[in-house]
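User: Predict the full complex structure for these chains.
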Amino acid sequence: MDTRTAVIARRRLFSSAHLYDQKKFSREENLATFGRCHTPHGHGHNYVLEIFVEGRIDERTKMVIDLTDLDSILLTVTDPLDHQHLNFDVAEFKEKVPTTENIALYLREKVRIELQTRHPSLKLKRLRLFETDDLWVEIE
Amino acid sequence: MDTRTAVIARRRLFSSAHLYDQKKFSREENLATFGRCHTPHGHGHNYVLEIFVEGRIDERTKMVIDLTDLDSILLTVTDPLDHQHLNFDVAEFKEKVPTTENIALYLREKVRIELQTRHPSLKLKRLRLFETDDLWVEIE
Amino acid sequence: MDTRTAVIARRRLFSSAHLYDQKKFSREENLATFGRCHTPHGHGHNYVLEIFVEGRIDERTKMVIDLTDLDSILLTVTDPLDHQHLNFDVAEFKEKVPTTENIALYLREKVRIELQTRHPSLKLKRLRLFETDDLWVEIE
Amino acid sequence: MDTRTAVIARRRLFSSAHLYDQKKFSREENLATFGRCHTPHGHGHNYVLEIFVEGRIDERTKMVIDLTDLDSILLTVTDPLDHQHLNFDVAEFKEKVPTTENIALYLREKVRIELQTRHPSLKLKRLRLFETDDLWVEIE
Amino acid sequence: MDTRTAVIARRRLFSSAHLYDQKKFSREENLATFGRCHTPHGHGHNYVLEIFVEGRIDERTKMVIDLTDLDSILLTVTDPLDHQHLNFDVAEFKEKVPTTENIALYLREKVRIELQTRHPSLKLKRLRLFETDDLWVEIE
Amino acid sequence: MDTRTAVIARRRLFSSAHLYDQKKFSREENLATFGRCHTPHGHGHNYVLEIFVEGRIDERTKMVIDLTDLDSILLTVTDPLDHQHLNFDVAEFKEKVPTTENIALYLREKVRIELQTRHPSLKLKRLRLFETDDLWVEIE
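Assistant: Here is the predicted structure of the six-chain assembly.
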């Protein structure tokens, strides 16, 4: 990492319901694979999204990115999931199983689009999605 | 508090979905009252239940209650809610609105029954139910 | 506590600077009493305010108080302190020393006024003000 | 609580080993009662002690107690336990079983002596001893 | 990292006693090197192990590894240490000093064996072992 | 990473005041860029510094670095900032804007000097500076 490069990281909580149901599977396969996560109406979590944005420290502001911008990106990407049932209310997960891995991939794509549009010189270095404090997925 | 009396407290997480829908209300009243919590399929949380059990320190074991017993009580009362949709899967909340307050009252009743059956000399001094780290309900 | 009474608790962070300087003291007394907290420009903290609001669970909403209202009260009382230097920017602390104890008393008064105005049937049962995770003041 | 009264709370971690062995018990009773806690050499914890000290806010300092004093009390009472094996190195627990309840009673006595000596007008309102983040004992 | 690759991380607590005693050292050298950690009976900690498992997201389950498997691995590797005295009860540490670094190396080996046996396509990307919340060792 | 190499990480809190004021900017530019962080007297934070020190595990002590040394380094680098107003009391920030990015760069330089002097074979692998639990900067 270059001397004047830094990563700024920020967390945001969102609360969603989900259930695991692989359409290709029989009911038995679904239960064997997903156990308690395969129910008709689902359960839920307080997800916590962490994004790590890398870039040069701006010569004038001495920041990588303004906190207001960072929060606006986090709100833009989590708002469509917050207080929703992922399987029923979010187009992406009507077909795809909303595992933590898949939600993380979805959010990475959304964050990248926001960064590309607003701050093309900045890069999403890492994204972490916590399902609970003790279980999370990390992607680069 | 008597010298040999103590309170032992224990936490347990469970993950559920819920939604707020007061049957007596019109759709407009439901939206005005519950906002984002009034959706057809709901959202969810990692709830954390804390129970505070008060009693005399046993002369022989030097404990108020054995941890295995305490965990068994917590499992017994939270298991019917864990990985369930409170409104659709739990009889209590098919009619009652599963607000954090109502879930706490329901859990207090269940914990009291377990204590009464297993350890009639012990008392549930306090119960806390966290919806997130920053929002919780406390009842005595 | 009556069966249908509950306490709802909520946290909010605010970031302020402060310094300890008792006008009645000589410089020597100030240093002896306040040590590193007695400097000309001060230092700062991420304060966390927790308020515990007690009341009957409303028959219709099944809540003690709506979360939006609760957050509005917290914002109203912490906003005048957030991102401010308590000694120089907040009238209350131009004369009074902004110890955690004094800030807690000030906030209790402000929360009580808000509750009295908005929800006269609700009571502030407890208020906690954290200076760090390991040091806080609790008043009733 | 009087308007000018407050409780100040402070945490301190100490790391100790312990084991549960009730001398009056046979080996079978010990194992049946204490399970994995009954081993010849013991195991250990990062204990966290929280003390809640109540008193009037001093008219001159605007504090209940100075943080340096509070930390000195915590150090005085936890230092004899820190980095020790409670059963073998601490007189109190050569006979008594070092359950969390018993350690809490022991620490309450020690804190009361310190407060009585240093600040007779202050009162230990509550003491909490955490064995882990999810299990603790609270005494008054 | 490939688009469909993710890291899943999981935490588990275990409670052990340990002491630092380098057989090659004289008592003076042991005290000079290890300070309060060199006692005859030891002290203890709530250790927290975090493992970061990297692999492709399975096409059918949309997960890197099932949570039940992950927990089984963590239980398998930590159970021989949990509620034990590392120096007296665990073969590995009868000779080797159970510093956090050495325990981390030991656990990495054990986790790798479990992964190799159960999920040869998955890789242990990182392992963190916390002695307290504020002190930990990280190895790859 | 070589088999016998590990990273040891350690946290330390310090409390400082700061304000954002870019001398090159007009008042309007300062307000537009820094918002609530541009005030005459500033606000403050409980900063948490984490340093990640990488090196070979010493053959004799089985540690990368002794905890006393690690804490001494952390104290040496944070003490000049702790309970100070960064803009008025710390030479470095009389001209430079004390953004979290800039404070992190400053601390990295200071930690490197300490490591170079005391333990030239060890390397600062990563440094994280938290402004709050939910916002931090990470540099290598």
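The domain at 5-139 of chain B is CATH 3.30.479.10 (Tetrahydropterin Synthase; Chain A).
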